[in-house]
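ok trying this again, last paste got cut off
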Amino acid sequence: MKKIWKISLIVFSVLLLLITFGIFYVFATFKPNDLKPRITDYFQQKYQRKLLIPGDLQLTLLPLLHIESGSVSLMEKNGQDVFASLESVKLSLVWRPLIDGRLEVDGVTLEAPSVHMKKFSDGTTNIDDFFAGGGAPPQFDIKSLKINRASWVFDDQATQWKMRNANLQVARLANGVPTDFKFDGDLRLNQDQFNVHIDLNSPLLFDLAKQYFSLEKLNLAIKGTSKAANTTTLNDIALNATGAMTFDAAKKLTHLGDWALQSQLVNGEKKWNAKVAFSEAEQQGKNWWAKNISSQAEQQTAAYHLNTTLNMPELSLIDARMSGKEIKLTTQWAAKPDVKKGGAQKNQNAIDAVLTLGALDDVNDTSEPTNIYNLRAAHLEAKGMVDAAPVKLQAAGDIQIINNNQMVTKGPLKLQFNYQS
């Protein structure tokens, strides 16, 4: 019995040695560049696009199956113009799943990829052929994805978007698997008149089959400059936003939660600051609603200072009808005084105003072109100084606005005005 076990062990060891030697012999004699014609033929046959891989493919066996290529270029469909290119690509595969017939990617790194997307006058784009034919979404599991120094151009014949020096890191990329990502890049619009740097990071969850996409806690920061066609220059643009977002394409539903946005614009002596926050919002088709909305806007110029706040528990647009309740608008305006010689001031002007609405109702008939809004239980109180003289205004009642340019009262309107010259 011991002799049989000994012989079996020797035979098994020899077979294992032969299999191991055979595997390493195949890879030792295998030439990675032999794969290049198969890869290029695939893109030519499936997409009618020419793929160029001028450099050699590099192959490393241990500890992972590591494939590396130099520059790669993909042409436009049935054309010679470059659609996409990159300086190098590195791909690492896990051995065990390959033996089981599965593809598990340990890591992908793309260096300096560049893509030029175009939208034509008939509404089609130069990437439509990649999505033709339908079918099930691709299945993939990438443990790590890194894209460095990417550039992207989108040209729709009216506006050109340019993304430069873009970097993307994804901890794991797979359907239905929670992950985290970080992105940053430089965005330019309209012949470089709008230039900003973008930083974005968030936990991420998506499902291509269900057309579901979720950012659990998004953090967005934008900073840059802008110069409009009328030569108006914004020396400083800053936007920060945080919140959660879920997009369900199958239901045409977008849901937002706990959003806070803050922005700042600077043009010489003119400064604008704004803050907007809401606890929850949802949009489905043409309908939308938002809850616990608060906003603040501030403007400073050489002549005046304006500060406005708006608060409301709910605002909605359902079936083309807008409604809201308990709306409060507060405005503080103050002119910067002129100073005479000797330190005396003149033109002292300042107004504080508070407008409250019990409810806002949209009574429009969608079959008619007239826009009608009812402002119920409206109350306005304004007080301040006009040319250093006290002034006070009070008004209360129900008001109806027609076509945004006509205002009529509904029922009695209380009005009180005091001015002391």
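PB: full thing came through this time. The two ends are 122 Å apart (CA to CA).
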